[in-house]
């Protein structure tokens, strides 16, 4: 079977990346230069490049042109209750925390709905940035009934929220329901994460439950989409 010119263009680019001749994040040669090297039409180069953009091998920045897509340094498995600290340290980085606020406030009607609490029940609110080698990676907002975890208890534990809750309340976190939403730009969060208006965020909304299916706490985790890749396994029923 004769290989098409578009196929040849795609394989040439893929092999250039595999062999390290094109680095991740590096700008692609011009379409004309590729066409001359491969002795194909520029239209075939356009088509091959467009297909690799669709397949997320390449990326197209309107200001800088086409480049090899940068690798995500972090991987977060959605099918497991893995802490953000684990996600960071598993890749050889030092995990850190920068606190923005730590307070106890009456539950709003939305808090009460998520946590099945009477309205105005006191809730511990923890707002922080998770860092890797002191660079911001994830913005976290966690809300826990104060009966399960107070600000003082969390500060003195110096550990993950899940571990702090389980140690102080004796309740075990069994699983978490997760919603994922793509956020194009959110001024407050994006600025804190040093994300440009062109850089998207991935929001994970999590409600954590104990083994009796009672909600224990809920979280909003905003990940910089350029840094973190998500993966899960979907089974056919």
TrEMBL record:
UniProt-listed PANTHER family: GNTR-FAMILY TRANSCRIPTIONAL REGULATOR, MANNOSYL-D-GLYCERATE TRANSPORT/METABOLISM SYSTEM REPRESSOR MNGR-RELATED
Any GO MF annotation of the entry: DNA binding
Entry superkingdom: Bacteria
SUPFAM superfamilies recorded: Chorismate lyase-like (SSF64288), Winged helix' DNA-binding domain (SSF46785)
Record Gene3D superfamilies: Chorismate lyase-like, Winged helix-like DNA-binding domain superfamily/Winged helix DNA-binding domain
Organism whose genome encodes this protein: Staphylococcus arlettae
Swiss-Prot/TrEMBL GO biological process terms: negative regulation of DNA-templated transcription
Protein name: Transcriptional regulator
Domain UbiC transcription regulator-associated, residue spans: 90-229
């Amino acid at each position: 079977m004769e290989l098409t010119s578009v196929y040849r263009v795609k394989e040439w680019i893929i092999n250039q990346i595999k062999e390290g001749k094109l680095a991740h994040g590096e700008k692609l040669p011009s379409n004309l230069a590729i066409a001359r090297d491969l002795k194909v039409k520029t239209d075939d180069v356009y088509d091959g490049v467009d297909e690799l953009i669709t397949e997320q091998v390449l990326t197209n920045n309107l200001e800088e042109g086409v480049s090899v897509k940068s690798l995500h340094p972090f991987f977060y498995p959605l099918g497991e209750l893995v802490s953000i600290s684990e996600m960071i340290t598993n890749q050889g980085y030092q995990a850190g925390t920068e606190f923005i606020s730590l307070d106890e406030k009456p539950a709003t009607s939305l808090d009460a709905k998520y946590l099945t609490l009477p309205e105005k029940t006191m809730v511990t609110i923890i707002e922080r940035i998770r860092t890797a080698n002191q660079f911001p990676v994830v913005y976290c907002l966690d809300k826990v009934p104060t009966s399960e975890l107070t600000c003082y208890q969390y500060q003195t534990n110096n550990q993950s929220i899940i571990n702090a809750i389980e140690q102080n309340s004796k309740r075990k976190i069994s699983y978490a329901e997760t919603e994922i939403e793509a956020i194009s730009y959110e001024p407050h969060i994006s600025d804190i994460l040093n994300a440009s208006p062109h850089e998207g965020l991935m929001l994970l909304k999590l409600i954590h439950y104990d083994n009796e299916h009672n909600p224990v706490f809920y979280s909003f985790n905003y990940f910089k989409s350029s840094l973190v890749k998500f993966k899960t396994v979907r089974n056919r029923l």
